[in-house]
Every structure is written in C-alpha cells, then in structure tokens.
Amino acid sequence: MSKQFQFKLVLLGESAVGKSSLVLRFVKDQFDDYRESTIGAAFLTQTVTLEDQTTVKFEIWDTAGQERYKSLAPMYYRNANCAVVVYDITQTTSLEKARTWIRELQRQADPSIVIALCGNKSDLSARRQVTQEEAKKYAEEEGLMWGETSAKSGEGVSDIFTAIAKKLPQTAAPPKAGGAARSGAAASRAGVDLNKQSNALGGQNEPCNC
Length: 210
Ligand SMILES: Nc1nc2c(ncn2[C@@H]2O[C@H](COP(=O)(O)OP(=O)(O)OP(=O)(O)O)[C@@H](O)[C@H]2O)c(=O)[nH]1
Ligand SMILES: [Mg+2]
Known about the structure:
Keywords: Cell membrane, GTP-binding, Lipoprotein, Membrane, Nucleotide-binding, Prenylation, Protein transport, Transport. GO terms for molecular function: GTP binding; GTPase activity. One of its GO terms (biological process) is vesicle-mediated transport. It is found in: Cell membrane. Helix content is about 30%, strand content about 20%. It is of the alpha/beta class. It has a single domain (about 5-205), classed as Rossmann fold (3-Layer(aba) Sandwich). β5, α4 and β6 (about 145-150) form a beta-alpha-beta unit. The relative contact order is 0.18. The structure holds guanosine-5'-triphosphate and magnesium ion. Magnesium ion (MG) binds near residues 19, 20, 37, 38 and 62. Guanosine-5'-triphosphate (GTP) binds near residues 21, 120 and 152.
C-alpha cells in the first residue's frame, strides 16, 4: 500500500504579497485580480501525489498579513509542520517582513518545522526589486527552501508545494509509539502517517488549532 501523510502548513507574510492567491492557485487552479484581504485566517486542504504514489495531504492555514492580526499567528504556526513565508518580488519591504517572520519561526515554532521562502509575483519581473541571488543567498544561509512563484500565471506554484511534500516525510520525526501518538499536538507536529492505525486522528476528531 502506498504511503499517506498529512501535514499542517501555514502561510505567513506581509499583506498583499499574494498568500491567498497562491493557495487559490494551488487548491483550485484559479486566480482572482481583485482578492479581498484575509480576515483572521482561512483553512483549505489539498493533496499532492508524488511519483512513488505517496500522497501528502496539506492542511493549509492561510493567515491574514495585516498588522492587526499579527498576534493570531502563533496559534497557526505552533503546530505546523511547514511554513511558507511569502514576499513580493516587487517590494523590498516585503522581504524584510519575511525575514522577521522567519526569525520568529526559528525562535518560537517547532524546531523540526520546514520553512520555505517564496518570492511571489514573478510575472511582474519588470518591476522587480528583490533579485533572485539576494533571496537565494539569504535562504541558503538560513537553511530554508526557496522558490519564485506567480499565483497569476501559475508558474512555480505546484513546484514549491511538491518540493515541500517531498521534503516533509523525510524530515518529520517518526510518530511516537502508543499513547503519545494519540496526543493531538505531539502527533500532528510529527506529521501523521495515515496508514498507521494508532496514529490516525481521523480528521473531525482532531483538536482544533483555533
Ligand atoms: N501580478 C500578480 N498579482 C498577484 C499575484 N498574486 C497575488 N496578486 C495580487 O495581489 C493582491 C493581493 O493578493 P492576496 O492573495 O489577497 O494577498 P494576501 O497575501 O493574501 O494578503 P492578506 O490576506 O491581506 O494578507 C491581489 O490583488 C492579487 O490579485 C501574482 O502572482 N501576480
Ligand atoms: Mg490573504
């Protein structure tokens, strides 16, 4: 039987960098020129099937980038297996904000969290302010995954989520045996191997993050 995994993914980044647009592209393969700014956070799921038929289900928390929602973020990244920190390649300040999020994740999130830095709006390369070299160098220094995307054209979007899906099952801590596996927080941080009976949290019974 092929392996099945389930992971919690959180999107962080300054308002208007395109977090919700990236999720909309990834989950529904759609794009909206006039998206409303997210209020609080939005929850969506999407499953990726890898070449070896392993399936990875992402439980995605798309957080609100506006400053007034900043204090909510720890609730979403606390149990996350992976974080996609998004900046807009046409706005240098958005990379600064991304660095702030990454520092916060490095201090406060689970040490095993996989972090991907994502430069969105690659279709607007004529207005580029952040070079690929600069972002890539920073990502390498911090041990982050890195990629550029365009939620508008779709370029790079599935690549970044697939790369995360490939990386996750390898880096996630093995599920704890026995009773510990039933404790929601411990099991979800380690990722859930859906083939393992003792570890199957069964969706609806999972404790809510909010
Ligand atoms: N050209 C271009 N525009 C984009 C892209 N991604 C998002 N946008 C536009 O950027 C604006 C903001 O996108 P959102 O997805 O709402 O941004 P967000 O990061 O979710 O913002 P908050 O919810 O406020 O945190 C919208 O007008 C989108 O249409 C992209 O790849 N290219
Ligand atoms: Mg949004």
